[in-house]
Amino acid sequence: WIHRVVHGDEIFNDSAVVNDQVLAQIEDLAELAPLHNRANATGIRAFRAVLPDVVQVAVFDTAFHQTMPESAFLYSLPYAYYEKYRIRKYGFHGTSHKYVAMRAAELLGRPIEQLRLISCHLGNGASIAAIQGGRSIDTSMGFTPLAGVTMGTRSGNIDPALIPFIMEKTGKTAEEVLEVLNKESGLLGISGVSSDLRDIQVAAELERNKRAELALDIFASRIHKYIGSYAAKMASVDAIIFTAGIGEDP
């Protein structure tokens, strides 16, 4: 039985058969993904209680991106923060990016080791990955899935100084501001219509809703930036892949 586990830190660079040690590590990593890893561990324990003899495998969202070089995954912060607190870019949607890269190589009829690919996982959550020779060399999401492109309800990249500024102006706590950035921003926050791109397209195209049009422009612009920068980083690109809800059904 396979479990998708969001965060594997630097411990897991591949899938792992779940044993007591792996389960304990998944639980220990909950501070890096509190909404997901605890739930993952609960599901694993429940499955084990009902079907104790069935092998369980944890597939980590972060594993594929463990091939990124330090120059891609480190933030320009004191290096001690990385050493002490594991603060770095981890990237997410790794299982999706890995699969579509392999599938693209099949469709192109070329060895994946020879390809330079840009994978665009576009759904309510969205991330872009640069994949060279079958290995992730950079990706848009960061320490958390909040970073990167504009998403359904997530802001994507912002100036970090905005957080204390918003706290001062609104009286919100840091946790409340993060709630806004995660659940009230992105396409929903800009358009005021919905987090669903289909609803926004209807509002923009049929109703001529200016904020919906703006949301579409911003969404596309942020994606274009990553595609352009990753193409430049790899000196060329053999294919651009679109997947997930929006990518598969634009």
Automatic annotation (TrEMBL):
PANTHER family reported in the protein's UniProt record: ACETATE KINASE (PTHR21060), ACETATE KINASE-RELATED (PTHR21060:SF15)
Record flagged with keyword Zinc: no
Protein name, as recorded: butyrate kinase
GO MF annotation list: acetate kinase activity; ATP binding; butyrate kinase activity
Species name: Acidipropionibacterium acidipropionici
InterPro entries: Ac/propionate_kinase, Aliphatic_acid_kin_short-chain, Aliphatic_acid_kinase_CS, ATPase_NBD
GO biological process, one term: acetate metabolic process
The EC number(s) this enzyme carries: 2.7.2.7
Gene: ack
